[in-house]
Amino acid sequence: MILPPWPAVAPAHGDVVLRRFTEDDAALVRELSSDPYVPLISTVPAAATREQALDWIDRNQRRREDGVGFSFAVAVASTGRAVGQVGLWLAELPSGRASVGYLVAPGSRGRGFAGSALAAVTAFAWTVPGLHRVQLFVEPSNEASVRTARGAGYEPEGLLRSYREIGGRRRDMLIFGAVREG
Ligand SMILES: CC(C)(COP(=O)(O)OP(=O)(O)OC[C@H]1O[C@@H](n2cnc3c(N)ncnc32)[C@H](O)[C@@H]1OP(=O)(O)O)[C@@H](O)C(=O)NCCC(=O)NCCS
After folding, report:
1. Nearest CA to ligand 1 atom 1
2. b/e per residue, 25-49, with b = 16+ CB within 10 A?
3. Which positions fall inside the N-acetyltransferase domain (predicted)?
4. In a 10 Å sphere around its CB, with 0-12 CB exposed, 13-18 middle and 19+ buried, how is residue 154 labelled?
């Protein structure tokens, strides 16, 4: 599938800007990989070596050409330092849908970076022709993520029972959605 080009102006909100990953972000990927939950719900390997982190960056740099979506580094606008990742996944674009996911490094949490990253990626999503709905999936116990979704204007739409396996156990997931206005 041919996806739209990278945005000419980097999506931004609050203190963050969304940019492409570079090799300089390997330390961020390694910090993400040190979190017990992140490797269970993402493609970040647990306890990544520098080489594994660089491989992950390489794969994420190619997500758009691969027709998968946009994998953005969440960076502090004032310094460019990466503090996380947000993905806009577009495999269902022919049906007018996308999903998003976000990760913030343990040492950078609680400072509003996830909320700003989700607001920025959602604004970018509405520039994608043919996209009408963005959805995300959150474990009910993941209070920080629930609050992130709500804060960015996503509506809870229901509980999907036994929706996916995480860490060897079937998990219920809340589904949140945002829809294009007008
Ligand atoms: C979920 C996650 C992305 C939040 O990142 P963050 O940058 O710390 O979030 P923010 O600082 O933007 O805070 C977002 C909201 O969560 C709240 N929050 C942050 N940490 C919290 C915590 N430990 N417990 C409860 N609420 C928390 C904030 O107060 C804020 O809510 P508010 O706007 O209503 O005050 C981060 O914890 C993370 O990467 N977790 C592991 C991966 C993950 O769960 N990803 C989401 C999968 S659905």
Report:
1. 145
2. bbebbbbbbebeebbebbebbeebe
3. 16-182
4. buried
Ligand 1 closest atom vs CA 110 = 11
Enumerate the β-bridge partners of residue 76: 16
- Nearest-CA residue for ligand 1 atom 21 is 144
pTM of whole model > 0.90? Answer: yes
Q: CB atoms < 10 A from the CB of 136, how many?
A: 23
In tens digits, what is the pLDDT along the chain, a chain of 182 residues? 889 999 999 999 999 999 999 999 999 999 999 999 999 999 999 999 999 999 999 999 999 999 999 999 999 999 999 999 999 999 999 999 999 999 999 999 999 999 999 999 999 999 999 999 999 999 999 999 999 999 999 999 999 999 999 999 999 999 999 999 97
For the CA of 41, the closest atom of ligand 1 is 47
Specify whether domain 12-179 bears CATH 3.40.630.30.
yes
CA of 144 to the centre of ligand 1 (A): 3
CA distances from 121 to 53, 99, 134, 163, 173 (A): 23, 11, 10, 25, 21
